[in-house]
Design brief:
By secondary structure, the protein is α/β, with parallel strands linked by helices. Helices cover 29% and strands 23% of the residues. The chain has 3 domains: 234 residues, 3-Layer(aba) Sandwich (Rossmann fold), CATH 3.40.50; 69 residues, Luciferase, domain 3; 104 residues, GMP Synthetase, Chain A, domain 3, CATH 3.30.300.30.
Length: 539
């Protein structure tokens, strides 16, 4: 027997309508450069309707793609809703990828219209000769705010003004595609994850709620992750869904600027990769600045160092929500949530883990032969995920086997799982150091190294070894002089003796990839090219 609930599709336009009717006066901060905007969720919805109507008039609807190459501004936010609201798909091209890869993702998808902003204009000009299908570029900036250009440029505001704010959002199939994000292509060319309305809405509902981001109308979110990286980790949807204020920083991500936004706009929650939070911490320490209303950071994309989480908690009363996810899982799938009144030591123990699956996601680990391994907190295995918002395959690359035969996404990560379903990420499969048949976690060694007060940042990669196949090499950016022996002695208090790095190299800075994570491919090239000054550790 069928139930008698109303059958309404889960659509992104319904998230926006909810925000406009329920939290209409909640502010959104962040126009183009120094542009002052008077903006809230009512205005967002009206402008998104107008833009949607204009796009519809240009023939956009289901099965059509539109691209953006842009940073986090209110116009980019409007684009998210307008494009998906007419049933078309928005490909958020990642301006941090190498130009050849950006061009590849745009050509591979194949569309005529690319939305840009003044901060990506030069990049768009550079890319234009390689973009085979793009015929029109739309500038998301106030009229006249851009320099002369050879690109066939249309003004966003003119396009929007040609639309009708009385446009009615069409009822779409909730399983239709809405957004397309590409992986950062650390192994081969980027692959596309094509999200559905249903998956995207469920992901935002589940990850924004309790035991995860725990958002509510008292929150102000600083949108640090680019909208092109896993849909900005859900932030474009969290605001209207939970009535939280949004603060959009545009292109800038330097700590002085982010700090000023946090304090000035009463930011309560800031998401980002650990590198961003390490920089912000250093800035606060150097300037003596406080963090205003900030009470939690959401750290994702890489394992956050314990010392960093400890400093935020003890010195600033800021908790870390630590999440695990990947482009193929829309944004987060597991989150570690430490209740506010947990004693700091217990809270930190919880924050160190990648947390537990949010509702709608399931995790398991398997051995090389595909058999499921126990959730005993000891046995490592290949992490697999199943979720309403996990990829079933790659966009136009159906030959790539994204999932196991029974439909679980292969993540490429190695993990352990506790009996209570808490995830402990060991490493990426390709980063784990295979020493004589045993595994050493590069992430755990990095965490142990950054726990030393003289270490600003650390990376661990494998060095070839005649007997053990691979041994760890520690690469350190030091905040002040420190000897190798002191570092080794420190590590020995935190990791097994056989994990101790065979060599330590000191560098001025470490390379980071397009989403701010350590670029270990580049470090391996440094090692192969003899660019690292390796001093062997005393045996
Ligand atoms: P890319 O693969 O392009 O770097 P993704 O954002 O898709 O970009 O990266 C996903 C990967 O990042 C995961 O497979 C995992 O290896 C790593 N990762 C994500 N979150 C965490 C975390 N909390 N701790 C450790 N590693 C993480």
């Amino acid at each position: 027997m069928q139930g008698l609930n109303q059958d309404l599709p889960l659509l992104l336009s319904s998230v926006l309508q909810h925000g406009a009717t329920t939290y209409g006066a909640v502010e959104v901060i962040g126009g183009h450069a120094n542009e002052a905007i008077d903006y809230d969720y009512v205005r967002l919805e009206v402008r998104a309707r107008q833009l949607a109507s204009a796009l519809f008039g240009l023939g956009y609807g289901p099965d059509r793609f539109i691209g953006s190459l842009a940073w986090n501004t209110h116009r980019h936010l409007e684009l998210f809703y307008a494009v998906t609201g007419v049933g078309a798909v928005l490909h958020t091209a990642n301006p941090r990828l190498p130009p050849a890869q950006i061009a590849y993702t745009i050509n591979f998808t194949g569309y005529e219209t690319l939305f840009i902003d003044t901060d990506t204009l030069a990049l768009a000009e550079q890319l234009a000769p390689q973009l085979h299908t793009v015929q029109r570029y739309v500038m998301m900036a106030p009229p006249g705010a851009w320099p002369p250009t050879s690109l066939p440029l249309l003004s966003y505001e003119d396009l929007l003004a040609s639309g009708n704010a009385g446009f009615t959002w069409p009822v779409l199939d909730e399983r239709s595609a809405c957004l397309l994000c590409f992986t950062s292509g650390t192994t081969g060319m980027p692959k596309g994850a094509l999200y559905t309305h249903r998956g995207t809405v469920l992901n935002a509902l589940s990850t924004g709620g309790g035991n995860a981001w725990a958002l509510n109308a008292d929150d102000a979110i600083l949108a640090i992750p680019g909208f092109f990286h896993c849909n900005g980790w859900g932030v474009p949807f969290f605001g209207p869904m939970y009535g939280a204020k949004l603060v959009l920083p545009g292109r800038r991500a330097d700590s002085a600027f982010l700090h000023a936004l946090i304090v000035e706009h009463g930011v309560t929650v800031a998401p980002g990769v650990p590198t961003i939070f390490l920089d912000l911490l250093r800035h606060c320490r150097e300037t003596g600045g406080g963090l205003g209303r900030l009470n939690r950071i959401f750290s994702g994309g890489a394992a956050p160092p314990l010392a960093m989480m400890e400093a935020y908690l003890r010195d600033y009363g800021v908790r870390t929500i630590h999440g695990w996810g990947m482009t193929e899982t829309t944004s987060g799938a597991t989150m570690s949530f430490a209740p506010r009144d947990l004693p700091p030591d217990e809270a930190l123990r919880a924050m160190r883990t990648q947390g537990r699956p949010v509702f709608g996601a399931a995790i398991r680990i398997s051995g090389d032969d595909g058999t499921e391994l126990p959730r005993d907190g000891i046995t490592p295995g290949h992490l697999e995920v199943r979720s309403h918002w996990a990829a079933a395959g790659y966009f136009q690359r159906l030959e790539v086997e994204a999932t196991t035969a029974d439909g679980w996404l292969r993540t490429g990560d190695v993990a352990k799982i506790d009996p209570d379903n808490t995830l402990h990420l060991v490493d990426r499969s390709k980063d784990v150091i295979k020493s004589g048949g045993e595994w050493i976690s590069s992430q755990a060694l990095e965490d142990a190294a950054t726990n030393h007060p003289a270490v600003r940042e650390a990376a661990v990669i494998a060095m070839p070894h005649p007997r053990w196949q691979e041994r760890p090499l520690l690469i350190v950016v030091a905040a002040r002089p420190v000897t190798q022996a002191a570092l080794q002695a420190h590590l020995l208090t935190l990791v097994p003796k056989w994990w101790l790095p065979d060599a330590i190299a000191f560098v001025d800075a470490l390379p980071h990839g397009p989403t701010g994570k350590l670029d270990k491919q580049e470090l391996r090239r440094w090692l192969a090219d003899g660019r690292l000054d390796i001093a062997s550790a005393p045996s």
